[in-house]
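Case study: S41 family peptidase.
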Amino acid sequence: MKKTYSKIAFLAAIPVLFFTSLGFKSDFFEIAKQLEIFTTLFKELNMNYVDETNPAELMDTAINAMLEDLDPYTHYWNEQEVQAARIDNASEYTGIGATVGIKADKIVILEPYKDYPADKAGLKAGDEIIKIGNIEVANFEEDAGELLKGAPNTKVELSYKRRGELKTTTLTRGAVEIKAVPYYKLLEDKTAYIVLSQFNRNASAETIKALKELKSEGAEKVILDLRGNPGGLLSEAINVTNIFVPENELITSTKSAVEKYNQAFSTTRKPVDTEIPLVVLVNGRSASASEIVAGALQDLDRAVIIGARSFGKGLVQRPKELTYGTQLKVTISRYYTPSGRCIQALDYRERDKEGNARRIASKDYNEFKTRNGRNVYDGGGILPDIKLETSEFSDITNAILQENAIFDFATQYYYSHELKTPEAFDFTDEDYSNFLKYLETRNFEFKTSTEKAMEEVVTAAEEEGYQQELSGEIKNIQKRISDAKKQALITKKSEIRSLLSEEIIKRYFYKEGLYEYYVKKNPEIIKAKEILNDQQAYKKILKA
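Here is what the predicted structure looks like once written out:
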């Protein structure tokens, strides 16, 4: 029944696509005509369909099917989702104080925040919430995560499973402060280490506070850690960059098919320090506002970028108010760095046979120049000046993450190992071997692009009658691919091991303990300190 709705609704929704995304750029009569067709179709469908229909659900299906053909950042938000978006950009909300993953029949605790309600109630990462109050999560058709929210100081009873054992706890909801800068510290070599985890409305203020405090303690160099930072407010990206560059510097520009969305954004404030040596850390999970900051500082030759190519999210969204408190979050333009590089990696206008957006091929990258004349390239995301494999996310690593294998292995590790301090942790070769065995028990598999191409070759061979002649060669190639996939778990050991270490450390010592571990043993921070402590090498990187 639902599949029937989806097909009908998608066809009905096509006219709305032209109206919302093209506006009056198309012929007005054609828009009015298509809207009238949609309205009459929707009315007749609801009045005459053989089974009872739900107009609201049918319309949601139509809207979502319509938007699915665009980029993944263009969304329709109902009233609850509008409120959730406001919380994301705020610095405080009321809840249980934990990151959670929503599944079909349960809510999984991904990370409890230290000293917040979930932590005080004894919840741990990996716990599976199956009941909230009197409501079974599996039977709740809407977003069960909303049940965890509520007024301050209200109590809620939770039933959850931990390693197969059913448990209950009662917690008191409270205000949860979301820090943009969750950690900063003066390292032993007079380096200020500052973690900027998101660009909420307090991002620049908290970064300035941390920098000034560390400079007063004697900091002479800075490491700004943007790894895993998903982005946030554009205005705060400009302000954070402004901390290290003068007023009236172009930081980013946007280009759109709609003239009014073509804009340039420059710094407007007095900087804190335009001379202090600066390293910025990025990885494949640094996105959007993080990439604006890293790209601008690289193009202006103001900082050395270390890590791995960033995510490549260079599409600009703007919320458009709809009726009844709903919104359309619509992509309106693309971001560009000061040198002219486009940050966006995937082209949603060009898709492969499976419907996936295409990534720009390296042969099609364009060359740009930084202020000092250094060569930099587009292709999506920000390519660091110094690449480290521990920061990378290869295909096999992403497949492992999607399977939640690293998260689940860390849960298993936590309940079978003792650890007293972050500095004492060492993920050994034996531990990694145990992880590989664990993957085997999960029957972990992932399909490479080469395998997908081989499937097409096999299909074509069958259709053209060459299967028998080619079967030996095909089997040989498939075996070699299989061997290469197994070898990838060895060759990509550094990046996988790094992610395992991070997830395990958090289980014992929260995010704070992870950062304490970082400043002692993290390869990216060690490399950053090495560059900052060698001013000749630092300046050489930033020169043409």
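For the exam, be able to explain this: The domain at 92-177 is CATH 2.30.42.10 (Pdz3 Domain).
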